Amino acid sequence: MLQGRDVRRSARLAYEVPEREDAAVMKFAGRREQQRRDREAGQAAVRKPRICQLRGSLGSAMISVLASLSTALRFRLPRAVLFDADGTLLNSLPAHVKFCRTLNTERGLGLALPLSSDLAASRKITGAPMAQFFRNAGFPDDVVPACVAEYEARFAAECPVLPYDGVDTLLRRVRDEIGAAAIVTSNTAVNVRRGLGPNLGADLEIFGIDNGPTTKREAIALALDRLGVAAPDDATYVGDTRSDFEAATACGLRFVGVDYGFEALRGAVDAPVAADVDELCALLCGPDR
Known about the structure:
By secondary structure, this protein is α/β, with parallel strands linked by helices.
């Protein structure tokens, strides 16, 4: 028979044992729950980079597809192309600087002119028409008209120029894939024809200051009329100066610039700009097939 103290001890044990068991069970359950959470967190950590990587790959692919589609939708062949000549088809800036140096010496003007081989310095004195070129080079206004007359009479014979590499392919593709084309220049048609040679662009009409309007805007309008282009935005003008861009857009034409001519156009005009003749060909006619 249990005494009072033993009864109390038994009662206490009867109460404490389940309590300790419950605590142990809870502790074990807590560890299991924490382990489950840790596993899930680890799996999520593994899945997240994979998902992000997958999303990134899909996103890049989608961006590439959309960019290609956008380019394809934007590109359309013009119905006609008008070309500037100097600095666009003809590598003539060195020759123009050379001619300025010749007249400077002949007239004893004492101007500090750049070497014809220094493209960056030569670009600082360029201008169109040729009267503006002379003024930018420092020629006094009272001699500019006589210098322009000398230029028209002598330049082609004394300062021969050549087309840029690839111009033959460019003009062939424009003829075959677009058809209508002409040259609108602030130079004389005689000088441009001599620079192109007897065969290159022989089928192109040249609108120069010696056989057409004296302003480029009027010459562009005349060329479009001769080519039968009623809507100016069906035509593209290709040039190498900001004044070319301004004249073309004022007439409603699209514009494509080149960055290898008289001025550095990339970033200077709101229009596509080709780094070389091959890129120009792709901008006008699409990728070579």
